Amino acid sequence: MAVGDGHLVYVEECAATHGLPVLFLHGGPGSGCSPMQRRLFDPQRFHAVLFDQRGCGRSQPLGRLEANTTAHLVGDLEYLREALGIASWIVFGAAWGSLLALAYAETHPESVRGLVLRGVFLGSAAEIGAYVRGQHGAVPAAWQAFAAAMPTSEHDDLLSAYARRILADDPAIARAAARAWLDYARALHGEPPLATAPDASQLASARIQLHYLSHHCFLAPGQLLAGLDRLRHISTTIVQGMTDPLCPPHIAKDLHRAWPEATWLPVAGNGTDAESPAIARACIKALGWVAEGGAV
User: Fold this and answer.
1) pLDDT truncated to tens, each residue of the chain (296 aa)?
2) Residue 66's Cα: distance from chain center in Å?
3) Does the bond joining 29 to the residue before it have cis omega, within 30 degrees of 0?
């Protein structure tokens, strides 16, 4: 689907075309959707819409940063809803997707009939800083390797150090820095380091992630929490893995504290795997609650 500014975004619809519409927003930023994510949606009940955000996954041009901001993505979602002829839909956001879901819902609350937020990320400077400084503490050795890939003189601002290199015009410099950046994230996910240099899709993912994080996700400080009054009437469930080092639970708790009307669904002991059986079951349960208007 052409959304303007030279961007083509990949969209797929699956399951019951006459079912309850659900929009799935992937994490990242920069990752794209996967076939596994379709399994969250009962094919007899839901009309699921999955889309790869600008520059991500199967969208084109891959890795393009121009006209690629949170506001552009919010506009794409509303354009997509209108193009598909959907009056309103449940929006299901995972990790970075939870931020995008909130930004979209606060801009277009009339288009959202419910929200499922899995692994909350609010895009704050504190969250981003804790991530690059290894303050979640899950894999100290991984953070040490991550920091060691940059000169010691730049350790006070690792985000800027990585952004300068990954967004550089020199492909060799960008690829080496992207490999270290991606390996750190993989370690937090419990995955091994990359066996080879990043491919085009992985490099694009790193570029988009650094583009967003170095611009504070194109949000004003506290913007999402400040806009919650627009959403209090919307049936919402927050699914949070209580040992998630990428989207730590205290952020989700902050959101729930500010939004007590939302249903809180913690998941114990899931580690870092967003598609673990326990998390998947909780997401499916949350989707059912939201589809029923919040009945628990």
Assistant:
1) 999 999 999 999 998 778 999 999 999 999 999 999 999 999 999 999 999 999 999 999 999 999 999 999 999 999 999 999 999 999 999 999 999 999 999 999 999 999 999 999 999 999 999 999 998 766 889 999 999 999 999 999 999 999 999 999 999 999 999 999 999 999 988 899 999 999 999 999 999 999 999 999 999 999 999 999 999 999 999 999 998 888 999 999 999 999 999 999 999 976 556 678 999 999 999 999 999 985 33
2) 19
3) yes
Range of the domain at 243: 2-123+219-291
User: How many CB atoms within 10 Å of residue 151?
Assistant: 8
Cβ atoms of 201 and 26 closer than 8 Å? no
- Verdict on whether the full-model pTM lies above 0.85: yes
Determine, yes or no, domain membership for 87. Answer: yes
Query: Are both 118 and 134 inside the same structural domain?
Result: no
**Same structural domain, 261 and 231:** yes
Task: Identify whether 61 is preceded by a cis peptide bond (ω within 30 of 0).
Answer: yes
Backbone angle region of 134, left / alpha / beta, with phi > 0 → left and psi within -120 to 50 → alpha: left
Pair 81, 199 in one domain: no
Look up residue 233 and give its amino acid.
H
Residues 115 and 129 in one domain: no
| Number of domains observed in the structure of the chain | 2
Same domain, 204 and 134: yes
Residues 16 and 100 reside in one and the same domain: yes
In this structure, are 67 and 206 located in the same domain? no
CA–CA separation, 111 and 277 (whole Å): 30
Q: Which string of DSSP letters, residue by residue, matches 134-203?
A: TTT-S-HHHHHHHHHTS-GGGGGGHHHHHHHHHTSS-HHHHHHHHHHHHHHHHHHTT-PPPSSS--HHHH
**Are residues 23 and 78 located together in one domain of the fold?**
yes
Contacts of 60 by beta carbon, 8 Å cutoff, 6+ apart: 7, 8
